[in-house]
Write a structure and sequence with these properties.
Length: 335
């Protein structure tokens, strides 16, 4: 973040555990990050790395039980969200913080019209009359690029295409002009043409509305085109954070490097086979006491099996949790 800037969202030492019949699953382990006003933060990693659970933990979207937030703080506009009551949380969700889910068909209620679902948060959070809410709903559908928006308010989710349903989800998330928008892999289920349209829409809305965005994805190509900063997660924790250009030009964690090496070259200059990351993600049945990437890492050292590396701050805005120093090719001073 720029010097002197006050983060709109400040997460410190967040830990989330699921209690199951087979024991505890430590899904989020001491995650700390901040989000500047107007910034777009990309969160990347394989499935199961803790991206979605981390963001759903922030605003109380995980069912409890089995989920339990065991430690941490989430400061938003001077208050800790984790200490809010259920009513206070409901007032934050949808009004101050919007959430776009991955699959709009399962997130939209099939028995209510699209208009009703857009108008509901407007009437609850902003106190608009039915007429005012309808007018605002028409504006929102027009904003996200739904043609002929007014008659479409009466339609149901199944009457929209996949891309249009995702636009409706974005409209609902934007209804009350939130300060932060969290988008959980919103383009994963869409074809590339519709995906490009949604990404362009997000760019336009971000600059028009000035909101901060957290964009969760496993697609590094998407992140390269829209993010200001990237946070790489693995095994329920952050392994690297950096500005987007810095991360792509100078990845420092072996996991980040491996992810980038799995991408095809758009120039066609790469002649060798694409790399695969051998092995399986780590078991999260216990709090990690060693590096979670050790078993799959070509740079692993003895210390990686006995200690879980803390975040090292490098070059001002580049953080990495790794004992291997990519600059020297040797072990980093753990002290």
């Amino acid at each position: 973040m720029p010097d002197g800037a006050v983060p709109i969202l400040d997460v410190t030492d967040l830990k989330t555990v699921f209690k199951t019949r087979g024991g505890e699953v430590h899904a989020v382990n001491s995650v700390s990050f901040d989000l500047a006003p107007g910034e777009l933060l990309g969160v990347v990693g394989e499935s199961g790395s803790g991206k979605s659970v981390t963001m759903m933990s922030l605003i109380g979207l995980l069912p409890s039980p089995p989920a339990e937030i065991r430690a941490g703080s989430v400061m938003f506009e001077g208050r800790d969200i984790l200490k809010m009551t259920a009513n206070e949380l409901r007032n934050i969700r949808g009004s101050r913080i919007g959430f776009v889910f991955q699959d709009p068909m399962t997130s939209l209620n099939p028995v209510f019209s699209v208009g009703f679902q857009i108008m509901e948060p407007l009437r609850k959070h902003m106190g608009l009359s039915k007429k005012q809410a309808k007018a605002r709903a028409v504006e929102l559908l027009e904003l996200v690029g739904i043609p002929d928006p007014e008659p479409r308010l009466a339609d149901y989710p199944h009457q929209f295409s996949g891309g249009m349903r995702q636009r409706v989800m974005i409209a609902i998330a934007l209804a009350c002009d939130p300060k932060v928008l969290i988008a959980d892999e919103p383009t994963t289920a869409l074809d590339v043409t519709i995906q490009a349209q949604i990404l362009e829409l997000v760019r336009e809305l971000r600059h028009k509305l000035g909101m901060a965005i957290i964009w969760i994805t496993h697609d590094l190509g998407v992140i390269a085109g829209i993010a200001d900063r990237v946070m790489v997660m693995y095994g329920g924790q952050i392994v690297e954070q950096a500005p987007v250009r810095e991360l792509f030009s100078n990845p420092l964690h072996p996991y980040t490097r491996a992810l980038l090496e799995t991408l095809p070259s758009v120039t066609g200059q790469r002649t060798e086979k694409l790399m695969t990351i051998e092995g399986q993600p780590p078991s999260l049945s216990a709090q990690p006491t060693s590096c979670p990437f050790k078993a799959r890492c070509s740079k692993a050292m003895d210390i990686c099996g006995t200690q879980n590396p803390s975040i090292f701050r490098l070059s001002g805005s580049h953080d990495v949790a790794c004992f291997w120093d990519a600059t020297t090719g040797k072990a980093r001073d753990a002290g």
